[in-house]
């Protein structure tokens, strides 16, 4: 499968290179849907300029990247385009290898379950075959690389591409079972933006499953593994933070990066939910609503982990989706990362109920974003309500997409345990509802 | 007490007007500068030059070079943060000679008043829209159209409102208000209401679309008169071109309108002094504004000056048309999801069985190929006419403008004949599914496209929807081919444009013969291409890059077998 993958990488790199050279790159790097105050390339250049002058790059509230990023670009600023294309390629290859390994495990588990006769007889059509799973890794790489959202994000030189690369490497190392690398990449991802912290839970669940440690609160091995992982994770986080301190010689990156992400002072419109709310809110209630909104991102971890403890990779997908929808400054680059996973669940297609509506709404909203921005900012005929309406619709469509996949996944699991054609106690036909 | 009650002032104004009655070669820049300076304004000039992509036969210009002259009247006691603009386009000949005279007379009168809170900029622009575009770009430090202009030396704060005058004779019987701007953008309805209210107060006859108001709304003829007026506005808005110099201000969020003086055969005539009083009143009203005009509607259609149709009334009509497309898409989705007839019992799932997957590369190819080819044809239609005009002029005995327009028509017609399908080379299995998938994609594409167009320029979106939606919903490979092909071509964007040209002339009560109509159609195409490169009008790229490929997809579906 190396040849199709190489061809795909070549096509993707060509498309990005062509767009970099065209006049559209200026236009795209200013769109608020593609860049946010956290990830904009203009701000990276500004921070580098301040660093060259000897001033702290965090003075003036323009630059909100971490010190490791600024040092990375200090050496690579002349090769910025190549760096971002390379980041996309790394993400795609990492996801390809991760999904290939995951499919092997899924197939192996299915084989064991079949031999142990654990599936009821009438759900044989739900069993997956290697033939249908053969092209899935390639499709995942294709969904990531050729997604217009990813291409726009790369051409705008948004550092979201780097964040996605780190998360993809984390997913690869988790699925391969390497505990140390998984902890290191997760701490890097958390260091870049705080929200990947919630990916701790699926990582732990997966690694424990792989090492045959039972997920039971009363077992000592469970707690011992958690302590090991936490030690590695917190240790690498501590090392990275101290390294950042020594790089720039001061602690002002902490309020500029993490304070900025958590307290949302900049209310530039984007495709998230925060800006409109906080623009119209009274100061008195700001802290309360800030806490509510930020807890919303982290809140779904525990219930989802309890429900999906046998299926940690699906949990990773759901967590990534929740992070991309509810984070404080989302961009389309975040969305493209979890959308790359959709081919992995292509066998759930028969149970999805809203796929047509969701895809129509996502398509229409993506087209309407620039139109309503133009009408609001340039023509002056609309106002922020119109743009926020489209933002809300877009996010509702994403939530519907994720919950639809959740329903389909759980339904398939239910069928695999109880049979495909459900009968009530009196023999009449039954249906499944998600409560 | 009002403008020109002083006989000296009246005499000065009349002498100015008679002096401007003589034909001028180009614009009298030095004379204008001297006169404005004598009236106490701060005078500045701006040079600009632009080479059009091909010669403009309507206005007979190709390499345009000119100078704008503007004078700023500083507000006596206010900070210089806001400004108002009064502009008069100056062209050679007696096309707009009276307006400049009136502008200078007003400047002198305004100079002596103390109640101005905003700076007033008196602008005389050369080569009408091109000069106005250069001035606005210089004022706002943008350069969107690639024009070459010298920077402005004097500025006056952010412009709150602007009026443009077009007066060709010193006896006026009515004033025509022109509202339609670039890309169908309209000024705030408050500005139109303000002007109409003032005209009624002063007693000047005011018209819109050149048609007078009628009082008999209940009768059939009164109703049809109102519908005609509204259809004229729809046609003008759909063309996307600015119908007066004010049209370019709207893009910068400045409310502007053009006032045209009309001299027709009527008993009651007004003279320049009354017009001057009217404008003075308008400017005093605009002077008192505390914020930009934004309270009233920006999206409206006017059947007459005292009635309007707001977006809340006309958007549902468009919404219903779009719903047709969405319902057709839903129907296709359901058809694609149900499997072909299988007599297996026990399939009692409520949900549709899993939908289509692209099992082979051939399926994907048969969907992608028409899409790619249609869009490449659209790109060719956008780029070829201008790129290859030199080559066309070498080989054919036509002028550059004709070359551009005829190339566009040739590419448009050639698109109909391209072989789009690869499935004829591959096995014919699955073609039933193939055209359904293509139609689903095409219908959704058209729905999103029409929605976005209607939001920006409602009239254009509505006219396209009226002509494209019925045919998009009904076309399949199984309808009678010749009849459907004929209907599809009749309702294609180019023929819609041709019929609109005839319809527009009918509405203006100047019906023309087929020969003249065809020539007018060709000039409309060339104007559309020029508007796009000169002012950034979106109609030409929209039609060539998006609407035409979408129409080609439906043409493709019709000839799927």
TrEMBL record, chain A:
It is found in: Endoplasmic reticulum membrane. Residues 1-17 form the signal peptide. It is a multi-pass membrane protein. GO terms for cellular component: GPI-anchor transamidase complex. Pfam families: PIG-U. Keywords: Endoplasmic reticulum, GPI-anchor biosynthesis, Membrane, Signal, Transmembrane, Transmembrane helix. The keyword Phosphoprotein does not apply. GO terms for biological process: attachment of GPI anchor to protein; GPI anchor biosynthetic process. Pathway: Glycolipid biosynthesis; glycosylphosphatidylinositol-anchor biosynthesis. The chain crosses the membrane at residues 82-99, 143-172, 229-251, 257-278, 285-306, 351-373, 385-407. Belongs to the PIGU family. This is Phosphatidylinositol glycan anchor biosynthesis class U protein-like. It comes from Echeneis naucrates.
UniProtKB/TrEMBL annotation, chain B:
Pathway: Glycolipid biosynthesis; glycosylphosphatidylinositol-anchor biosynthesis. The chain crosses the membrane at residues 297-327, 364-383, 443-476, 482-504, 540-560. InterPro entries: Gaa1. GO terms for biological process: attachment of GPI anchor to protein; GPI anchor biosynthetic process. Keywords: Disulfide bond, Endoplasmic reticulum, Glycoprotein, GPI-anchor biosynthesis, Membrane, Transmembrane, Transmembrane helix. It comes from the Eukaryota. Pfam families: Gaa1. It is found in: Endoplasmic reticulum membrane. It is a multi-pass membrane protein. Its main location: endoplasmic reticulum. GO terms for cellular component: GPI-anchor transamidase complex. Heteropentamer. Part of the GPI-anchor transamidase complex, consisting of PIGK, PIGT, PIGS, PIGU and GAA1. Interacts with PIGK. Component of the glycosylphosphatidylinositol-anchor (GPI-anchor) transamidase (GPI-T) complex that catalyzes the formation of the linkage between a proprotein and a GPI-anchor and participates in GPI anchored protein biosynthesis. Binds GPI-anchor. This is GPI-anchor transamidase component GPAA1. It comes from Echeneis naucrates (Live sharksucker). The gene is gpaa1.
């Amino acid at each position: 499968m190396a040849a199709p993958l190489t061809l795909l990488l070549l096509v993707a790199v060509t498309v990005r290179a062509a767009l970099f050279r065209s006049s559209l790159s200026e236009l795209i790097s200013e769109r608020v849907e593609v860049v946010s105050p956290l990830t904009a390339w203009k701000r990276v250049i500004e921070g580098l300029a301040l660093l060259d002058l000897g001033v702290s790059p965090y003075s003036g509230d323009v630059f909100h990247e971490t010190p490791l990023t600024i040092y990375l670009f200090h050496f690579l600023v002349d090769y910025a385009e190549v760096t971002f294309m390379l980041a996309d390629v790394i993400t795609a290859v990492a996801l390809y290898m991760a999904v290939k390994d995951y499919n092997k495990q899924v197939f192996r588990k299915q084989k064991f379950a079949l031999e142990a006769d654990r599936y009821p007889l009438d759900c044989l059509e739900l069993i997956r075959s290697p033939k249908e799973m053969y092209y899935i890794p390639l499709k995942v790489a294709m969904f990531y690389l050729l997604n217009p959202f990813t291409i726009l994000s790369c051409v705008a030189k948004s550092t979201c591409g780097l964040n996605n690369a780190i998360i993809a490497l984390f997913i690869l190392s988790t699925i391969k079972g390497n505990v140390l690398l998984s902890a290191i990449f997760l701490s890097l991802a958390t260091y870049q933006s705080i929200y990947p912290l919630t990916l701790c839970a699926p990582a732990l669940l997966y690694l424990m499953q792989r090492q045959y440690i039972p997920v039971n609160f009363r077992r000592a091995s469970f707690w011992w593994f958690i302590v090991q992982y936490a030690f590695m994770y917190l240790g690498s986080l501590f090392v990275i933070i101290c390294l950042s301190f020594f790089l720039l010689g001061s602690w002002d990156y902490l309020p500029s990066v993490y304070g900025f992400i958590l307290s949302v002072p900049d209310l530039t419109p984007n495709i998230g939910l925060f800006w409109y709310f906080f623009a119209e809110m009274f100061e008195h209630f700001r802290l309360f609503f800030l806490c509510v909104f930020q807890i919303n991102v982290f809140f779904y971890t525990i219930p989802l982990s309890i429900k999906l403890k046998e299926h940690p990779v699906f949990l990773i997908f759901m967590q990534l989706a929740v992070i991309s929808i509810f984070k404080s400054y989302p961009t389309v680059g975040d969305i493209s990362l979890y959308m790359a996973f959709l081919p992995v669940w292509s066998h759930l297609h028969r149970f999805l109920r809203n796929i047509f509506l969701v895809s129509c709404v996502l398509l229409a909203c993506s087209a309407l974003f620039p139109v309503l921005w133009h009408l609001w900012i340039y023509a002056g005929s609309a106002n922020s309500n119109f743009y926020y309406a489209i933002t809300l619709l877009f996010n509702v469509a994403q939530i519907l997409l994720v919950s639809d996949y959740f329903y389909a996944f759980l339904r398939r699991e239910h069928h695999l345990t109880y049979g495909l054609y459900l009968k009530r106690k009196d023999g009449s036909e039954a249906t499944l509802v998600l409560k | 007490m009002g403008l020109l009650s002083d006989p000296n002032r009246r005499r000065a104004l009349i002498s100015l007007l008679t002096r401007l009655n003589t034909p001028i070669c180009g614009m009298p820049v030095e004379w204008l500068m001297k006169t404005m300076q004598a009236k106490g304004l701060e005078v500045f000039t701006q040079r600009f030059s632009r080479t059009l992509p091909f010669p403009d036969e309507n206005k007979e210009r190709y390499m345009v070079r000119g100078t704008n002259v503007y004078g700023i009247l500083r507000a006596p006691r206010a900070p210089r943060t806001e400004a108002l603009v009064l502009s008069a386009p100056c062209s050679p000949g007696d096309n707009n000679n009276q307006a400049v005279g009136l502008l200078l007379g007003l400047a002198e009168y305004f100079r002596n008043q103390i109640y101005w809170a905003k700076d007033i900029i008196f602008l005389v622009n050369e080569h009408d829209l091109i000069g106005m575009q250069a001035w606005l770009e210089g004022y706002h430090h943008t350069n969107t159209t690639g024009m070459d202009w010298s920077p402005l030396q004097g500025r006056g704060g952010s412009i709150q409102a602007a009026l443009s005058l077009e007066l060709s004779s010193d006896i006026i019987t009515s004033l025509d208000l022109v509202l339609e701007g670039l890309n169908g953008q309209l000024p705030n309805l408050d500005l139109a209401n303000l002007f109409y209210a003032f005209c009624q107060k002063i007693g000047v006859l005011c018209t819109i679309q050149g048609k007078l108001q009628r009082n008999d709304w209940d009768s059939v003829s009164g109703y049809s008169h109102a519908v005609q007026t509204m259809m004229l506005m729809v046609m003008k808005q759909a063309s996307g071109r600015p119908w007066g110099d004010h049209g370019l201000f709207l893009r910068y969020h400045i409310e502007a309108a053009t006032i045209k003086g009309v001299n027709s055969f009527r008993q009651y005539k007004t003279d320049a002094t009354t017009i001057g009083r009217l404008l003075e009143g308008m400017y005093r009203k605009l002077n008192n504004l505390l914020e930009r005009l934004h309270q009233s509607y920006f999206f409206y259609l006017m059947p007459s000056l005292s009635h309007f149709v707001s977006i809340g009334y006309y958007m549902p009509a468009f919404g219903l048309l779009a719903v047709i497309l969405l319902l057709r898409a839903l129907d296709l989705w359901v058809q694609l999801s149900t499997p072909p007839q299988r007599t297996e019992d026990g399939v009692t799932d409520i949900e549709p069985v899993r939908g289509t997957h692209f099992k082979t590369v051939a399926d994907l190819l048969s969907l992608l190929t028409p899409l790619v080819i249609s869009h490449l044809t659209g790109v060719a239609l956008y780029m070829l006419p201008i790129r290859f005009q030199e080559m066309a002029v070498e080989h054919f005995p036509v002028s550059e403008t004709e070359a551009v327009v005829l190339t566009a028509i040739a590419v448009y017609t050639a698109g109909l004949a391209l072989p789009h399908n690869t499935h004829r080379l591959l096995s014919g299995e699955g073609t039933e599914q193939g055209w359904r998938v293509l139609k689903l994609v095409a219908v959704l594409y058209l729905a999103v496209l029409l929605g976005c167009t209607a939001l920006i320029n409602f009239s254009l979106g509505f006219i396209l929807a009226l002509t494209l939606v019925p045919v998009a919903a009904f076309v399949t490979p199984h309808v009678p081919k010749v009849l459907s092909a004929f209907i599809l071509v009749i309702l294609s964007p180019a023929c819609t444009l041709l019929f609109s040209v005839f319809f527009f002339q009918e509405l203006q009560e100047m019906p023309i013969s087929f020969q003249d109509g065809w020539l007018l159609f060709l000039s409309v195409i060339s104007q559309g291409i020029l508007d796009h490169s000169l002012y950034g009008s979106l109609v030409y790229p929209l039609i060539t890059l998006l609407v035409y490929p979408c129409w080609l997809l439906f043409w493709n579906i019709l000839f799927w077998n």
